[in-house]
Amino acid sequence: MNLTNATAFNKNNITPRFSFGYGLTYTTFNYSSLSVRLNNPQANLTRLPQACTIEQGGNPRLFDNIATVTAQITNTGTVTAAEVAQLYIGIPGAPANQLRGFEKETLNPGQSTKVVFGLTRRDLSVWDVVEQQWVLQSGSYNVYVGKSVDDIMLTGTLSVTAA
């Protein structure tokens, strides 16, 4: 399912038959230790990315990593299996639960690993039709980590102040 469909499903309160990342497993996983942080809290974030020479793909400042989300996953079952941890972000004034990353980890029984998701300025921005560019919103961003959009295991927030 692509992001557009996921947003339409959420907006219309439709439960998909199979969510992104759906799969069968023969074990269980525990999610814990959510950490959500700005990489440089003292940096003055601006609504618009710093002006620079535009390259193929747009303003390269859109791809600066400005925040990091980490979580720990533990295989609590009895067999080795893979888990796809997914990161969803709720941007203020935008559709909820936008997929912004996923990591697939294979873990032995009892084994734990830390998954790390970097968030770029683009990941946290919305398109402004007046400005004709991506704009970083000030506010509280909801952060969700889980097995799918329908099976969120951890929640947190990221506070952004964009001057």
**Which blocks of ≥5 consecutive residues have pLDDT under 50?**
1-5
Element order, helices and strands?
A: HEEEEEEEEE
Question: Could you describe the largest sheet, including whether it forms a barrel?
Answer: 4 strands, antiparallel
Class inferred from helices and paired strands: mainly beta
CATH fold category name: Immunoglobulin-like
Output the radius of gyration. 17 Å
Determine and state the CATH class: Mainly Beta
Describe the global form.
Answer: globular
Number of domains: 1
**How does CATH name the architecture?**
Sandwich
**Share of helix, binned:** under 10%
Q: Name the CATH homologous superfamily.
A: Immunoglobulins
Strand content: over 45%
Number of strands: 9
Instruction: Count up the helices.
Output: 1
Q: Which strand order spans the largest sheet, edge to edge or round the barrel?
A: 4-3-8-9
Termini separation comes to: 35 Å
Average per-residue pLDDT, rounded, comes to 87
